[in-house]
Design goal:
Elements lengths: L5 H22 L10 H9 L2 H7 L3 H8 L3 H15 L12 H9 L1
Length: 106
């Protein structure tokens, strides 16, 4: 069995410590990036219905969001529009019927 002097043990310990630090630097976790559609980012600040206006241009995103095509949405809206729309008063402007339906479906 080989015996090391104190100086040799210190040098070995320093080298092992340095090697461990280098390994830790290469193993550092990457910061995760999450791709979020621009429409979903605006929901918190601009409200739920603004998404509807953005989804009109993208049929696939519209279907993913409402689980129905734009055609089906418009047919459904046409059938219930008179029942869900409110009157305009001097006090406030009512929520549009399409917005009511969009929020209800979500």
């Amino acid at each position: 069995m080989t015996e090391f002097s104190n100086e040799e043990l210190i040098i070995i310990a320093l080298m092992l410590d340095e090697e461990q630090e280098n390994n830790c630097k290469t193993i550092k976790k990457r910061k995760r990036t999450v791709w979020v559609h621009d429409l979903w980012k605006k929901r918190q600040t601009e409200g739920e219905f603004t998404i509807y206006n953005g989804l009109i241009d993208d049929e696939q995103k519209f279907y993913e969001y409402f689980r129905m095509s734009q055609y089906s949405f418009n047919v459904l809206h046409g059938k219930i529009e008179n029942r869900i729309k409110k009157k305009v008063t001097h006090w406030r402007k009512p929520i549009p019927s399409k917005e009511r339906l969009a929020v209800c479906l979500r």
